[in-house]
User: Fold this.
Amino acid sequence: MTDTPKDSKIQIKGMNQGILITVGEGNWIDLESELLNLIAEKEQFFQGARVALDAGNHVLRASDLGALRDRLGEKQMTLYAVLAGSPSTEMNAQMLGLATRLSSGKTAGKGVPIAADKAPHEEAVLLQRTLRSGYKVDFEGHVVVLGDVNPGAEITAGGNVIVWGRLLGTVRAGVPGNPAAVVCALELEPALLRISSIPFLIQKRKSAGVPEIAKVEKNQVVITSWKTKQVN
Assistant:
């Protein structure tokens, strides 16, 4: 643990997993600057530390979190978790591969606590964009994409993968061992598709022109029409 000025909006505490940094209200740029100044003053104390950031209700973009991670990395520190009361901040942290809860299962701010024994694939991340070549998503829960998944883009999920668009890239669902997972898309033409440890053998397959779902039946991946119930 390190002392911080009484009027500081940055609180730093030691914990079993490393260091917990809590930021108060205010402009994020100013808060980040104050945090980096505090670290610079006691550089030896922080060197090699694993950091969890409690962002409270701040709405932080992926670029904000990525920039902070890089700056901490320059100081030999590792940002491994972001606790957030803002769903947008939490989603952006997940997109960067950062944890969004500690081993105790608690979240920060006004977020809903997640029990430590809750199945990982019960969580979901929503991506409202087209995933272009080179874009990779690796998430332990469900992945929902409102857009296309282009050739060269990759999705790895512990749960289901749902694409509200064209799925042309690589998808691995139910990783590492969830054969109940499914992959759905409005147009399903993946370059590579795997559910749990079971691959789908693709032989120049073309979309049927209707929404489709891939699932495991009799230890093999099959693709059928993705039909939804209509509500009158």
